[in-house]
Amino acid sequence: MIKFHTRFGTVSIELDHKNAPATAANFLRYAQEGFFEGTTFHRVIPGFMIQGGGLDADLRPKETHAPIENEADNGLKNLRGTLSMARTSDPHSATAQFFINVVDNGFLDHTGKNARGWGYCVFGRVVEGMDVADAIVAVPTTSRYGHGDVPVEPIVIEKVEVVE
């Protein structure tokens, strides 16, 4: 389990090593390295998701490891409370950024191994602290440095615990 501590409280995440082994291992590696500490939930959209894991409070990107292969064809669905990898339009571009679905987002699910169908890999779920995610998604947002849906007050991941 991985615990993200924020000023709103703690979000506890269980990784799915069985269905998304490479993605879960990638995420765990970043957590163990302390990478996520000091990053923000930099994109929050009510009725959709909260995204974090790659930018600091000034929206500067942190240097990441190489991108990983997309495992979105693992049968897991982007349901409320699941954790998925963020990526660019390249299906195999995910590095450290992730998002927590605050509603069911079936349109993000894998439908085929093509540009439109790859989807976003679900690799974990929130086991405690969904109320914290709900509080985060409700904060006022603005545009800043070319980014939209940015919380007016930064929501920093202050501490990360990896619990065996």
How would you describe what is shown here?
Its EC number is 5.2.1.8. This is Peptidyl-prolyl cis-trans isomerase. Keywords: Isomerase, Rotamase. PPIases accelerate the folding of proteins. It catalyzes the cis-trans isomerization of proline imidic peptide bonds in oligopeptides. It comes from Plasticicumulans acidivorans. This protein has 164 residues and is α+β, with helices and mostly antiparallel strands. It has a single domain, classed as Cyclophilin-like (Cyclophilin, Beta Barrel), CATH 2.40.100.10. The chain is 12% helix and 30% strand. The protein has 2 helices and 10 strands; from the N terminus they run ββαβββββαβββ. It has helices at residues 21-32, 130-137; strands at residues 2-6, 9-15, 41-45, 49-52, 82-85, 98-101, 122-128, 141-144, 147-151, 159-162. The strands form 2 sheets. An 8-stranded antiparallel sheet has the order 3-4-6-5-7-2-1-10. A two-stranded antiparallel sheet has the order 8-9. A hairpin with a 3-residue loop joins β3 and β4. It is globular. The model has no long low-confidence stretch (mean pLDDT 97).
Set down the secondary structure blueprint:
Blueprint: E1 2-6, E2 9-15, H1 21-32, E3 41-45, E4 49-52, E5 82-85, E6 98-101, E7 122-128, H2 130-137, E8 141-144, E9 147-151, E10 159-162
Antiparallel strand pairs: 1-2, 1-10, 2-7, 3-4, 4-6, 5-6, 5-7, 8-9
